[in-house]
């Protein structure tokens, strides 16, 4: 171990050319570590451009914190399209980064994905903490990987899953266990604007009419945009019956998909733009169909005070649970546009109860701030460096 400041190598498999939950988690964690006596370094695919520099700056990190593993290529993964890189060129980049970094510990994300995380697992010679983000109900590739990579998995000193759903995948396909530590986020980033006042008495958060918002890739079926679009006619009809009038529907995210004329597409947006959008949203809709292990965007909506309507995926149910029965958002059966429409209409109809629920959600989201999640990860680092395995991933 290096003398003085511990050196932590963080490896992200997904490209930093595009925003994403895992990328944001890794950068946020690096920011926490830098503020708390560690020396973090990030390796991942992508060009070290303005997007990455901005993300690092928001976390209080200098540009040299990030090292590019080279350009990424799109590959199908977990019902989505992941931009990763893997091969001899990437392996050489990984070896050089490990040599120059002289790390005390590696924290690898999604280490059994064919990516720089897997390459770092193979090439590394220091203690390894691994975080698993995937929630895949059935996966032949995961089952095969669990068998073929048994020796590599044995190099992982400590396994982490971001939710119980992700942990179940580790247990099912890798035959091992992992401790659950949720994703972290910057709570203050999504609450900075909450002191604003409406433009007029009774005004909606979105202005003179209620705003519905969706954030996610437009062309990934598992994100469920098609479910929301199918529900919109009934939502609009219900709003008129309530005397609310017309709605504004904002769709944010990348993807080659046409949108109805009565929806406003804003494309890919920055972290700051996402915070502003959520802060002026009257109903945030998360219509995801499957394979979501956590739901960082739900946390961001909770912190922003945006009322939430979400599908009943296990990870979303866990995140929106307040005690044994009370929920911090309205839930509907995944893939059901009729029930989605009913949940949105009910949310628009009872603003007083919804505001109270949103207030509880905002308070609950503080538990996921880096000030709460970061120390748990730091404790795991210290235990791992001390030779403990919590829990063992070696059988």
From TrEMBL:
Signal peptide: none annotated. Coiled coil: none annotated. GO terms for biological process: carbohydrate derivative biosynthetic process. Keywords: Glycosyltransferase, Transferase. SUPFAM superfamilies: UDP-Glycosyltransferase/glycogen phosphorylase. It is an enzyme of class 2 (transferase). Residues 19-186 form the Glycosyltransferase subfamily 4-like N-terminal domain. It comes from the Bacteria. Its EC number is 2.4.1.345. GO terms for molecular function: phosphatidylinositol alpha-mannosyltransferase activity. It holds the Pfam family Glyco_trans_1_4. This is Phosphatidylinositol alpha-mannosyltransferase. It comes from Microlunatus parietis.
């Amino acid at each position: 171990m290096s003398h003085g400041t511990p050196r932590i190598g963080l490896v992200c498999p997904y490209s930093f050319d595009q925003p994403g939950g895992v990328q944001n988690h890794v950068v946020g964690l690096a920011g926490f570590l830098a503020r708390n006596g560690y020396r973090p370094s990030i390796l991942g695919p992508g060009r070290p451009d303005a997007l990455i520099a901005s993300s690092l700056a928001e976390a209080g990190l200098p540009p040299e914190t990030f090292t590019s593993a080279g350009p990424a290529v799109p590959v199908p993964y977990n019902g989505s399209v992941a931009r990763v890189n893997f091969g001899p060129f990437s392996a050489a980049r990984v070896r050089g980064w490990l040599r120059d970094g002289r790390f005390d510990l590696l924290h690898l994300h999604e280490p059994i994905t064919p990516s720089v995380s897997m390459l770092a697992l193979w090439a590394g010679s220091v203690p390894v903490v691994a975080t698993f983000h995937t929630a895949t109900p059935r996966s032949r590739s995961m089952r095969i990987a669990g068998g073929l990579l048994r020796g590599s998995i044995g190099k992982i000193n400590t396994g982490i899953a971001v939710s119980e759903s992700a942990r179940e995948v580790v247990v099912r396909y890798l035959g091992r266990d992992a401790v659950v530590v949720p994703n972290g986020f910057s709570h203050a980033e999504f609450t900075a604007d909450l002191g604003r006042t409406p433009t007029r008495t009774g005004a909606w958060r979105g202005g003179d009419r209620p705003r519905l918002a969706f954030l996610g890739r437009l062309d990934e079926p598992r994100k469920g945009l098609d479910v929301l679009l199918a529900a919109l006619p009934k939502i609009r009809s219900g709003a008129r019956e309530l005397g609310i009038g017309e709605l504004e529907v904002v769709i944010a995210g990348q993807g080659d998909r046409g949108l109805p004329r009565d929806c406003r597409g804003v494309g890919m947006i920055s972290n700051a733009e996402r915070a502003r959008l959520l802060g002026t949203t009257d109903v945030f809709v998360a219509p995801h169909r499957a394979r979501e292990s956590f739901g960082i965007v739900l946390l961001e909506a909770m912190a922003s005070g945006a009322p939430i309507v979400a599908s009943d995926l296990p990870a979303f149910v866990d995140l929106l649970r307040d005690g044994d029965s009370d929920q911090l958002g309205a839930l509907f059966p995944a893939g059901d546009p009729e029930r989605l429409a009913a949940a949105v209409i009910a949310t628009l109809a009872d603003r007083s109860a919804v505001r109270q629920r949103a207030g509880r959600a905002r308070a609950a989201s503080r538990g996921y701030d880096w000030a709460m999640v970061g120390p748990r990860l730091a404790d795991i680092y210290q235990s791992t460096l001390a030779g403990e395995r919590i829990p063992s991933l070696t059988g």
